[in-house]
Write a structure and sequence with these properties.
CATH topology of the largest domain: Quinone Oxidoreductase, Chain A, domain 1
Shape: globular
Number of strands: 15
Oligomer: single chain
Distance between the termini: 20 Å
Structural class: alpha/beta
Helix content: 25-40%
CATH architecture of the largest domain: Alpha-Beta Complex
CATH class of the largest domain: Alpha Beta
Largest sheet: 7 strands, mixed
């Protein structure tokens, strides 16, 4: 038997999460049965979506949801021999028993000089989200101007770089001067700290006086309302997240955007990368190719130690990470 450490949700979040909302438990796992494997987590992901999903998909006492890169250490499933590395949805666990149905093997030719943790970031779900948002939802074209908020995060930083590959002008906003400097390193044409500009409307207008063809939306709230007014007629908006609202006890109120959408004839679409699951293998190869060619850079904010999962999660929600937030077990 193997001892597995798990983090469970002891209480649904009331506003911003607290340490007391989580509890570390230890459980004994049985030997794998026929068709099952035993996984050992190497890297775990903390992502913004965990905050709203915990409200609608979890009950108190459940193990916290989330993805991980894991290694098969025992196997009674021919599809996953011992030593295989996979991405799974085991949640906040050090060890997991799986029948393999929720496991995706890491690509066979994964380069040895690329950390497997990137399978949770640039060459994983965030990278796929960026790619599909640009190509499938926005249909971004060369010469267009793109706005992306939360641009120094796991998704936004890849969005901006793919847009530059496609020959677009990219404007990004972030929450610190260090993050703005990072965006400029990545090749963003314009970047600003939304927390320190005197006027968000003026900052957006100065960055792109001609307006925005496309908007990759990660933040929601007041930022979204202001940004809509800067869109060009027939502009397109890909709605990926709304992190500014995830910890609200009451809904935010702000300018009413519908009339702006009508008069500018805007197209807004929410999406998740799972819609294009059939394209994942090819898309991951493209992302890895750009990474190896140096066209896409990847930065990670790594927290060491499984015991620090809640701290890493709360730090991510506070915006402490630049790039993908990862916990190394």
């Amino acid at each position: 038997m193997v001892q597995a450490k798990t983090w469970i949700l002891t209480k649904h979040f009331d506003g911003f999460p607290k340490e007391s909302d989580f509890q570390l438990k230890v459980e004994e796992l049985p030997e794998p049965k026929d068709g099952q494997v035993l996984l050992e987590a190497l890297f775990l992901s903390v992502d913004p979506y965990m905050r709203p999903f915990s409200r609608v998909r979890m009950k108190e006492g459940d193990v916290m949801i989330g993805s991980q890169v894991a290694k098969v250490i025992q196997s009674k499933n021919k599809a996953f021999p011992v030593g295989t590395h996979v991405v799974g949805r085991g949640g906040w666990r050090t060890h997991t028993i799986s029948d393999g149905s929720d496991l995706v093997p890491i690509m066979a030719d994964w380069p040895k000089d690329v950390s497997l943790s990137l399978a949770l970031g640039t060459v994983g779900m965030p990278g796929l989200t960026a790619l599909y948002g640009i190509e499938e939802v926005l249909a971004l074209k060369s010469g267009e101007t793109l706005l992306v908020n939360a641009a120094a995060g796991a998704v936004g930083s890849v969005v901006g770089q793919i847009a530059k590959i496609k020959g677009c002008k990219v404007v990004g906003s972030a929450g610190s001067d260090a993050k703005v400097a990072f965006l400029k390193e990545l090749g963003f044409d314009q970047a600003f700290n939304y927390k320190t500009v005197p006027s968000l409307d003026e900052a957006l207008r100065k960055a792109a006086p001609e307006g925005y063809d496309c908007f990759f939306e990660n933040v929601g709230g007041a930022f979204s309302s202001v940004a809509l007014s800067q869109m060009k007629d027939f502009g397109r908006i890909a709605v990926c997240g709304s992190i500014s609202t995830y910890n609200d006890i009451e809904s935010q109120t702000g300018p009413y955007p519908q009339m702006t959408m009508i008069f500018k004839q805007l197209k807004m679409e929410g999406f998740m990368q799972s819609r294009w699951q059939a394209k994942h293998p090819e898309s991951l190869k493209r992302l890895m190719g750009w990474l190896k060619e140096g066209k896409v850079q990847s930065r990670e904010h790594v927290t060491k130690g499984f015991e620090n999962m809640p701290a890493a999660f709360m730090g991510m929600l506070r915006g402490e990470n630049t790039g993908k937030a990862i916990v190394a077990v």
